[in-house]
Design a protein that fits this description.
2 copies of one chain form a homodimer. Chain A starts with a strand and ends with a helix. Chain A is built from 9 helices and 2 strands; from the N terminus they run ββααααααααα. In chain A, α7 packs across α8. The first copy, chain A, has a two-stranded antiparallel sheet with strand order 1-2. Chain A has one domain: Tetracycline Repressor, domain 2. In chain A, a hairpin with a 2-residue loop joins β1 and β2. The first copy, chain A, is mostly helical and 210 residues long. In chain A, 71% of the residues lie in helices and 4% in strands. The interface between A and B is large, with 49 and 49 residues.
């Protein structure tokens, strides 16, 4: 049995048809190259060459590059969902500590990675949210999902008194998204995880506390 | 006398040679198109066509697209410097209020603009900081400049007791950069200025206060 990992999603490769296998490989390769070179910096030819299929066949799998990108955003967001759920479940039971632990675990992955990709959704938002309404809507949906999970933890922390409750759960969650995404951009500009570590430290040592 | 405005930099067009005039037009056009479509989404041909010069002549002005982009980052950052200095000088004398007023004035410009560009440096950082070390270094320099000005106001506010001083000036300034840039990304994803307005509200109503 061949088990292939795409981030934290395990796929039993024997159970799926060759067509679906190629589709997954195209998405995995696109995800990696978009992370490194962005949407416009990645050519379809580059992707099909890596996967080893002819360029024309790409359009048997995806209607267009835009359609492909919408699927990549979904693929990335699903992978991230599984990863966040795992991290939060394995972490401390107190919500503020569980959130902090998850952010710190993700930072340590960025630290180990030579390419400082940051967040694919933040990167694509910066590059193409004006150019593709379809991708923008998909990114919006992905961030709503992510924030729902964070908001659940924030609300529990507020109810327990470990997170400040003079600011609404929704506003705190939006703020965490902003600070985190900005911290990842700062990491990219400084080519160092220090800015995003410092960002998480201030959030959790000061701003989220009651 | 012809006065042309590039953001808030006024250039006396009579005093400069036609070659420099074309150079400035190439930078202005590049700045606008990079803001809309990003680095890889903007072709040199598109830029020279808008300015009305042959494609080959582009390389009389700039060594390469990368070199051009380095100059655009400098051009944007200089324009922003003038703008921030004006906003801060015209604002309230108390440093926290002066900063808040400047951020709010800039948000109102984003609100009036149909294209939600956000911050060119944040956008290019997301797209090309891995691909171009030259551009990354230039962006880093630009953010250091920007943060120096903000840090000056933060330090004054801390000395006056209107800004919290249990966190270092440097750490607060870095955090403001992160939150602001993330707020602008959030604006792009949601196609609305509400997220960045809320971000500034939380920073100034809560997190920066003593």
């Amino acid at each position: 049995m061949i088990i292939e990992t795409t981030g934290h999603i395990f796929i039993l490769m024997e159970k799926i048809t060759p067509k679906i296998q190629i589709r997954i490989k195209l998405l995995q390769t696109g995800l990696r190259l978009f992370g490194k070179n962005g949407y416009n910096g990645t050519g379809i030819k580059e992707i099909v060459d890596e996967v080893g299929v002819p360029k024309g066949s790409f359009y048997n799998y995806f209607k267009s590059k835009e359609d492909f990108t919408v699927e990549i955003i979904g693929f990335y967001s699903d992978t991230l969902d599984v990863h966040w759920n795992e991290l939060l479940a394995k972490g401390p039971s107190e919500p503020l500590a569980a959130l902090r632990n998850s952010f710190e675990m993700i930072i340590s992955l960025h630290e180990q990675s030579e390419v400082k990709t940051g967040c694919l959704i933040g990167n694509l938002a910066a590059e193409i949210s004006e150019a593709s309404e379809l991708c923008r809507q998909k990114m919006r949906g992905a961030t709503i999902n992510w924030k729902k999970r964070i908001a659940g933890y924030i609300a529990r922390g507020q109810a327990m008194g470990t997170i400040r409750n003079d600011i609404s759960t929704r506003a705190l969650t939006e703020f965490i998204w902003n600070a985190w995404e900005g911290g990842l951009l700062n990491m990219k500009i400084q080519a160092s995880t220090t800015p995003v570590k410092e960002c998480v430290r201030l959030l959790f040592d000061f701003f989220l506390k009651p």
